[in-house]
Amino acid sequence: MVGGKIGLHPVAVIFSVMAGGQLFGFLGILLALPIASIIMVFLRHVHDTYRDSEFYGKG
Predict the structure, then answer these.
(1) Sign (positive/negative) of CA torsion 22, 6, 35, 27?
(2) Which of 15, 32, 37, 55 has the greatest CB tally within 10 Å of its CB?
(3) Can you tell me the distance from the alpha carbon of 31 to that of 34, in angstroms, rounded to the nearest whole number?
(4) How far apart are CA 28 and CA 32, in angstroms?
(5) pTM, to two decimals
(6) CA triplet 36, 15, 31: central angle to 5 degrees?
């Protein structure tokens, strides 16, 4: 899986595969990139919601 195809930085791809393998073995390696992609979509949504909120403009 190439990180550019799923929108992850190459370092994030390597880290997620290594962490998945360390935590859950071979199954973790297989599921690491889909789970990392889901987490990144969620974090981007949270970030966009924060930037559209009134808390972002205060300060």
Answers:
(1) negative
(2) 32
(3) 6
(4) 6
(5) 0.77
(6) 40
